[in-house]
Design a protein that fits this description.
The protein has one domain (8-72). It is built from no helices and 5 strands. The protein has strands spanning 8-13, 32-40, 50-54, 66-67, 71-72.
Length: 75
C-alpha cells in the first residue's frame, strides 16, 4: 500500500540521519505513534518523500515533520 495525502498510520521513528534533527525530536527515537502523510517534499535530501506529521492526539512536541524514510513499519 502506498501512502496518500492525509493517510493516518502507526510507525516507529527511526531516523536514517541524525545530523539534521531538531533538539526536541531526539526523544522520539524508537517511539511508535500515529502519523499523518501531510505533503510531498519538493526539494532537498528528502525530495519525493512524504512529509509526515504526528496525528492529532499523539504525544508530541510543537509543529514538526519527518520524512517517511525515517518511519519504520509504515504502509
Amino acid at each position: 500500500m502506498s501512502l496518500q495525502r492525509y493517510d493516518v498510520f502507526r510507525a516507529t521513528f527511526q531516523p536514517l540521519r541524525r545530523d539534521d534533527l531538531k533538539p526536541d525530536t531526539a526523544a522520539w527515537i524508537g517511539r511508535e505513534i500515529e502519523w499523518v502523510a501531510a505533503w510531498m517534499v519538493d526539494d532537498g535530501p528528502y525530495a519525493g518523500q512524504w512529509a509526515c506529521m504526528p496525528a492529532p492526539g499523539s504525544p508530541t512536541t510543537p509543529f514538526v515533520w519527518v520524512p517517511e524514510c525515517d518511519l519504520e513499519g509504515h504502509p
